[in-house]
C-alpha cells in the first residue's frame, strides 16, 4: 500500500522546497519514500514537478499513477490529471480555472495572505495534503523551524494548519513505525561519501546535473577544512585536481558529459603519470548540450574509451543514494591503491531522486592512502616509477622526504620520471602500467542479482535502473513469470562470474538501459562474447519507472 | 648559499646549441642556490614545448603537465602543499595561446607561484610557426606571407587583469635574470616573468643581438613600478627605441591562501588529519 503525490507548477513557485518539506516530514514519520524531480532548463516559468511516492513498504522507483496532485497552476492539472487513479484528488488554488470533478479548490493564496506570508501558499497545500491522507501534523512544526527563519516558520505552520482544517480526510493509509532513516539524493550522497573518504581538494565548473555535488561540498568546506574551488573550465578542474593529488591530497572533480569531454586529454595524462583521481560524471542526454536537466545512461561508451593511448581505469556506476555514498569512499581507496582514475557514473535521475535509506555506517568507511613512508624508503633512492611486480610503484608526497624527489612526466619516462625515447623502457613502462589491471580485476564487485534462482528471462541493467528493474522483477514474478535481473555497479573491469552463471540458464537475455544503442550489451559482448537477445531501451530523457519496465517486458519479451 | 651543483641533472640536454634556454636554466639554478632552497622543497611545473623540458634538466621535484595546462596543476600543488615553492616554466605558446584562459584566471586566483615564460616569439618544438608574441608581418615556417595577427602585449595584459608582479628579464643577462627571478619567487602571489630568449633555429628576427641592442634596465632609471598607469605605459614599450627589463609592476595583494583562514594559519592541506567519523555530523542535514 503506497501513495503517489505530484506537486507541479512553474519554475520559481517553490515546488522544490515544498517537495523537500513534505518528504522530510514523511521521512521522520517513518514512511519509505522515493521522490523524483522533473524540471525544465529555466529559472522562472515553464512546467516543473516533483513526484513523491511513499508507503509502509520499501519503494525504489517512481510510479506512473497518482493519488493526489497539488497543482500550483492550471497547466499542472492539464498535464497530469489523466494519471490520477481511482478516488484520486487534485488540490489547487481557488483561482485556478481548471474543470475537473476531482478538484478540491483551496484558498491557498488567500490563506497565505491571511498569515502574512504570500510565499506560504505551498504550505496551505501541504496542510491539506496531510489531512487528505489522514496524517497528523506531528513533526511539521519542527521541520518548518529547521528549514525557515523563526517568523517564516511560524507563518508557514499557520498556513499549513489552515489548509489542514479546510479539507476532509480522503484516504485511509497504513501508518508506519518510526525508523532510523535519512532522506537524501545521490549527488548529496556522493558529496558526503567524498567527505567521509577524506577528500582534501575538489575543483569543478558548474554543469547540470552535477552541480549540487560542488554546492554540498562548498557548504562544508570551512568546517571540514578542505578546498572546494570553482574554476574557469573543466580543463582547469581536472588538471588542478591532478596537481593537488600529486602533492598528496585526495582529489576529485565532478561534471556531466560535455564537461567530461573537455577533461579527456587529462584523463589520458592521469594514465601515464599514475596520479590517483576520482571523477564523477553525472550523465544527461547528449549529444552536445542535449537535455540539460534530464536523464540518460549514454556516457558509458564515452568514458570507457575516453583518453588517447592505453592505460588502466575503473568505472563504477552508482545504483542509488545508499550505494553512491559507499562507492565514493571505495573509489578513493581504489584510486590510491592502484594509482588509477576511478570514474563514477551517475545520472540526473539519481541526482534528483531523493529517497529514504538507512543512515550511513561511517564505521564501515576506511581511508587507505597507500603512501610510502620515510622509514619504508630507508636509504634507497626514490624512483617514482620503480618497476615492480604488481605495477604499483610506491608513491610519496613531494617535499616530505629530503633528497627524495617526485617527478611525474607526461612523456614516456624511465623509472625516475625522466623523459625517454628508449623502445625497451617504453615497453616495460607500458607493461608496468597495464599490470595494475590484474589487481583491479580482483577488486571488482559482481552485479546485484534478484529474482528466481533459475530464471527463464534475465534482465540486465546498470546504475540508476537498479530500482525500477528491481520492482519490475517482483511484479513479473508475482504474475507467474520466471524472471531474474543482474544490475551492474562495477562496469570496468567488467565482472563476468554471475553473468555467465545466470546467462547460461536463462532462455532470453534482455538489457534494460536508458540509451538508444544498448551500451552495456555492447560492453558485455566485447568482454565475454555473450550476445543479448533483446533490448529494452529508452532515450526520451525521462527515466523508465518500474511499471514501464514491467509492461515492456510483458509486451516485448514474454 | 647551497652548492649550485646539487641542482644538476644527469639528463642529456636536447636544446639546440646556443639556445636562450641555457641561460634561463643556469640562472634558475643560481637563483635556487642563492635562496638556499633544497631540491625537495621546489617543484618545477612545466607544460609542453622547449621550455617544457626545463624540469628534466634540473634536479628538483618535477611536474610535466599537458600543453597549455601548466597553470592549473601548479595551483593545485601549491594549494595542497603551501610549504612547496612552485615555479612554472612554460613557453609563449603554452602560456599565451593554449593556456591563455588559465593564465587569466590564475592571475585572478592569485595563488603564490612564479610563472616564468620562455619568451622567444616563435614556436620551437613544432619547428617555427608564429607564436602569440610573433611580430605582425614576420615571415615564419607557417606564415609564409608574414604573420597577419597582432602580437599579444603580454605584460600589459597581465597588469590589466590584476597581476601583482609583472616583470621582464633577458636570458643573456644572468645577473639581471637571477635578481628578477629571486624577486619573483619571493613575491607572495602570482608572479609573471617574461624572459627574452632567442630561438636560434627558427626566429631570424628576434636574435640575441636584436634583444641585446634594445634592452635597458629599469633599475638605471627612476621608474616607479608601483604606479599602475605608468606600468601599463611601460608595458607597451617595445621596439627599436628600447625594450625595458626589470619589474614593470608590483602591488602587494592577498594571496589565495591568505584568504582562507585554516590554510593561512593551519597546516598544509596535505597534513590535514581526518577520520571518516568526522564527517558523520554532516548526515544530520538529511534527517
Walk me through what this model shows:
The complex is a heterodimer of chains A (558) and B (287). Helices cover 39% and strands 21% of the residues of chain A. In chain A, helix 5 (140-147) runs antiparallel to helix 6, helix 9 packs parallel to helix 10 and helix 16 crosses helix 19 (546-556). Chain A contains 19 helices and 21 strands. Chain A has an eight-stranded mixed β-sheet with strand order 6-5-4-1-3-2-14-7, with helices on both faces. Chain A has a seven-stranded mixed β-sheet with strand order 9-8-10-11-13-12-19, sandwiched between helices. Chain A has 558 residues and is α/β, with parallel strands linked by helices. Chain A folds into four domains: 2-166, Pyruvate-ferredoxin Oxidoreductase, domain 3, CATH 3.40.920; 183-364, Thiamin diphosphate (ThDP)-binding fold, Pyr/PP domains (Rossmann fold), CATH 3.40.50.970; 374-443, no CATH class; 448-556, 3-Layer(aba) Sandwich (Rossmann fold). Chain A has helices spanning 15-29, 74-80, 108-114, 121-132, 140-147, 150-166, 186-196, 211-224, 234-247, 257-273, 300-305, 321-338, 348-352, 374-377, 423-443, 466-478, 497-505, 519-528, 546-556, and strands at residues 2-11, 32-38, 45-55, 66-71, 84-93, 103-106, 182-184, 201-204, 227-230, 251-255, 277-283, 313-317, 341-347, 354-357, 407-408, 448-451, 457-462, 483-488, 490-492, 508-513, 534-537. In chain A, strand 10, helix 10 (257-273) and strand 11 form a beta-alpha-beta unit. The two termini of chain A are 27 Å apart. Chain A is globular. The model of chain A has no long low-confidence stretch (mean pLDDT 96). Chain B has 287 residues and is α/β, with parallel strands linked by helices. Chain B is 28% helix and 16% strand. Chain B has nine helices and eight strands. Chain B has helices spanning 21-34, 71-80, 92-96, 100-109, 154-160, 174-186, 208-214, 228-235, 261-265, and strands spanning 42-46, 61-64, 85-91, 113-119, 165-170, 190-196, 215-217, 243-250. An eight-stranded mixed β-sheet of chain B has the order 2-1-3-4-6-5-8-7, with helices on both faces. In chain B, helix 1 (21-34) crosses helix 6 and helix 5 (154-160) packs antiparallel against helix 8. Chain B is globular. At the A-B interface, helix 1, strand 7, helix 7, helix 8 and helix 9 of A face strand 2, helix 2 and helix 4 of B.
Amino acid at each position: 500500500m503506497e501513495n503517489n503525490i505530484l506537486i507541479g507548477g512553474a519554475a520559481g513557485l517553490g515546488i522544490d522546497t515544498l517537495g523537500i518539506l513534505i518528504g522530510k516530514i514523511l521521512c521522520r514519520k517513518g514512511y519509505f519514500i522515493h521522490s523524483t524531480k522533473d524540471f525544465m532548463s529555466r529559472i522562472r516559468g515553464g512546467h516543473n514537478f516533483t513526484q513523491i511516492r511513499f508507503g509502509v513498504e520499501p519503494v525504489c522507483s517512481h510510479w506512473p499513477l497518482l493519488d493526489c496532485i497539488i497543482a500550483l497552476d492550471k497547466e499542472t492539472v492539464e498535464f497530469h490529471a489523466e494519471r490520477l487513479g481511482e478516488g484520486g484528488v487534485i488540490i489547487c488554488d481557488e483561482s485556478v480555472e481548471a474543470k475537473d470533478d476531482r478538484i478540491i479548490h483551496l484558498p491557498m493564496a488567500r490563506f497565505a495572505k491571511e498569515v502574512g506570508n504570500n510565499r506560504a501558499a505551498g504550505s496551505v497545500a501541504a496542510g491539506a495534503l496531510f489531512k487528505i491522507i489522514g496524517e497528523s501534523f506531528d513533526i511539521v512544526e519542527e521541520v518548518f523551524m529547521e528549514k525557515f527563519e523563526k517568523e517564516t516558520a511560524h507563518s508557514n505552520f499557520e498556513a499549513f494548519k489552515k489548509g489542514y482544517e479546510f479539507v476532509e480526510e480522503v484516504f485511509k493509509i497504513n501508518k508506519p513505525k518510526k525508523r532510523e532513516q535519512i532522506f537524501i539524493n545521490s549527488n548529496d550522497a556522493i558529496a558526503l561519501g567524498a567527505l567521509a573518504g577524506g577528500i582534501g581538494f575538489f575543483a569543478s565548473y558548474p554543469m547540470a546535473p552535477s552541480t549540487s555535488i560542488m554546492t554540498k561540498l562548498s557548504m562544508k568546506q570551512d568546517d571540514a577544512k578542505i578546498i572546494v574551488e570553482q574554476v574557469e573550465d573543466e580543463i582547469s578542474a581536472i588538471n588542478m585536481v591532478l596537481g593537488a593529488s600529486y602533492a598528496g591530497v585526495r582529489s576529485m572533480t565532478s561534471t556531466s558529459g560535455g564537461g567530461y569531454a573537455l577533461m579527456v586529454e587529462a584523463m589520458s595524462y592521469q594514465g601515464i603519470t599514475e596520479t590517483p583521481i576520482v571523477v564523477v560524471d553525472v550523465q544527461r542526454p547528449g549529444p552536445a548540450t542535449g537535455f540539460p536537466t534530464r536523464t540518460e545512461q549514454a556516457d558509458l561508451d564515452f568514458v570507457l574509451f575516453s583518453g588517447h593511448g592505453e592505460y588502466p581505469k575503473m568505472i563504477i556506476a552508482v545504483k542509488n543514494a545508499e550505494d553512491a555514498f559507499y562507492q565514493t569512499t571505495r573509489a578513493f581507496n581504489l584510486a590510491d591503491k592502484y594509482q588509477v582514475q576511478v570514474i563514477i557514473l551517475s545520472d540526473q535521475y539519481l541526482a534528483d531522486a531523493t529517497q529514504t535509506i538507512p543512515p550511513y555506517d561511517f564505521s564501515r568507511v576506511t581511508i587507505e592512502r597507500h603512501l610510502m613512508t620515510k622509514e619504508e624508503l630507508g636509504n634507497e633512492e626514490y624512483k617514482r616509477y620503480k618497476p615492480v611486480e604488481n605495477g604499483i610503484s610506491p608513491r610519496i608526497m613531494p617535499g616530505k622526504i629530503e633528497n627524495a624527489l617526485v617527478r611525474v612526466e607526461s612523456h614516456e619516462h624511465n623509472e625516475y620520471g625522466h623523459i625517454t625515447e628508449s623502445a625497451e623502457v617504453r615497453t616495460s613502462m607500458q607493461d608496468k602500467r597495464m599490470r595494475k589491471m590484474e589487481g583491479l580485476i580482483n577488486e571488482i564487485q559482481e552485479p546485484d542479482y534478484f529474482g528466481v534462482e533459475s530464471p527463464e528471462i534475465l534482465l540486465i541493467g546498470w546504475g540508476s535502473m537498479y530500482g525500477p528493474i528491481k520492482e519490475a522483477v517482483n511484479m513479473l514474478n508475482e504474475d507467474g513469470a520466471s524472471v531474474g535481473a543482474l544490475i551492474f555497479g562495477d562496469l570496468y573491469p567488467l565482472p563476468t562470474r554471475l553473468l555467465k552463471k545466470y546467462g547460461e540458464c536463462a532462455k532470453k537475455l534482455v538489457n534494460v538501459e536508458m540509451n538508444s544503442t544498448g551500451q552495456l550489451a555492447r560492453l558485455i559482448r566485447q568482454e565475454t562474447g555473450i550476445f543479448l537477445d533483446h533490448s529494452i531501451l529508452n532515450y526520451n530523457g525521462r527515466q523508465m519507472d518500474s511499471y514501464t519496465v514491467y509492461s515492456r517486458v510483458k509486451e516485448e519479451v514474454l | 648559499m647551497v652548492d649550485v651543483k646539487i641542482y644538476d641533472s644527469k639528463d642529456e640536454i636536447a636544446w639546440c646549441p646556443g639556445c636562450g634556454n641555457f641561460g634561463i636554466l643556469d640562472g634558475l639554478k643560481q637563483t635556487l642556490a642563492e635562496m638556499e632552497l633544497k631540491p625537495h622543497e621546489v617543484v618545477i611545473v612545466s607544460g609542453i614545448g622547449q621550455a617544457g623540458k626545463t624540469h628534466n634538466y634540473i634536479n628538483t621535484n618535477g611536474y610535466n603537465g599537458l600543453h597549455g595546462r601548466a597553470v592549473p596543476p601548479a595551483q593545485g600543488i601549491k594549494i595542497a602543499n603551501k610549504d612547496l615553492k612552485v615555479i612554472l616554466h612554460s613557453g609563449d605558446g603554452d602560456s599565451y595561446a593554449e593556456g591563455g584562459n588559465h593564465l587569466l584566471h590564475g592571475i585572478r586566483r592569485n595563488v603564490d607561484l612564479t610563472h616564468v615564460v620562455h619568451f622567444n616569439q616563435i614556436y620551437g618544438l613544432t619547428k617555427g610557426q608564429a607564436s602569440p608574441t610573433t611580430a605582425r608581418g614576420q615571415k615564419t615556417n607557417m606564415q609564409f606571407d608574414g604573420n597577419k595577427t597582432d602580437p599579444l602585449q603580454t605584460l600589459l595584459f597581465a597588469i590589466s587583469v590584476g597581476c601583482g608582479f609583472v616583470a621582464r628579464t633577458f636570458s643573456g643577462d644572468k645577473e639581471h635574470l637571477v635578481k628578477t627571478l629571486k624577486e619573483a619567487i619571493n613575491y607572495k602571489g602570482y608572479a609573471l616573468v617574461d624572459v627574452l630568449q632567442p630561438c636560434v633555429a627558427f626566429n631570424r628576427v628576434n636574435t640575441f643581438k636584436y634583444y641585446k641592442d634594445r634592452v635597458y634596465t629599469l633599475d638605471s632609471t627612476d621608474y616607479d613600478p608601483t604606479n599602475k598607469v605608468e606600468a601599463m605605459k611601460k608595458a607597451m614599450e617595445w621596439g627599436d627605441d628600447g625594450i625595458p627589463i626589470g619589474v614593470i609592476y608590483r602591488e602587494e595583494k592577498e594571496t589565495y591562501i591568505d584568504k582562507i583562514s585554516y590554510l593561512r594559519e593551519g597546516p598544509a592541506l596535505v597534513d590535514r588529519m581526518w577520520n571518516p567519523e568526522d564527517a558523520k555530523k554532516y548526515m544530520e542535514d538529511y534527517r
